[in-house]
Amino acid sequence: DQQVKQNSPSLSVQEGRISILNCDYTNSMFDYFLWYKKYPAEGPTFLISISSIKDKNEDGRFTVFLNKSAKHLSLHIVPSQPGDSAVYFCAAILDPGGSEKLVFGKGTKLTVNP
Amino acid sequence: DGGITQSPKYLFRKEGQNVTLSCEQNLNHDAMYWYRQDPGQGLRLIYYSQIVNDFQKGDIAEGYSVSREKKESFPLTVTSAQKNPTAFYLCATGGRANTGELFFGEGSRLTVL
What we know:
heterodimer, A: about 110 residues, mainly beta, 5-stranded antiparallel beta sheet, 11 strands, B: about 110 residues, 4-stranded antiparallel beta sheet, about 0% helix, globular
């Protein structure tokens, strides 16, 4: 049973517009949420995270929104750039300081067209 | 230079052969992980180790084996028992205690001929 779901396998947007990547989760006990970005044939790199006690975290062009009541988070990229084209993974963890492991979604492939 | 080194980056194997993927880190992280990535499947956890001389099975451990004799090293052996070994393998270390963030290596692409 998937605890972290990214229901859109792919997303295509125009350069300069907003990209919105969505992620749903089933376990209300998740304490921390992370987004990773992955280029082909490379390892994922950490992008941005949010604690369950917050509803928004912003870092430059990237903003993550958390809606705990809906068990939903989203990553906004504004403005989108061709270099943002990659696979984005949403991940969640129950207890970052303990022995719990990150749970990943299946990823969304973002294509930003020039 | 601190980081995670995976080798080889590309590897070809004949059916029935075991192969070992190397993962070395100098980040002084206690925890190390092996993930497998297949198209449309995301990142699936194979094995992980929270401390030297100890490791646990992940979600898809069948056909794989690991060892953790040193803090810096966590090699993964893909055995002939693994039915579909062709994949992209990622080693990771953890991580920030307050976020669970993992740091990933560059990956190893294994192709079974």
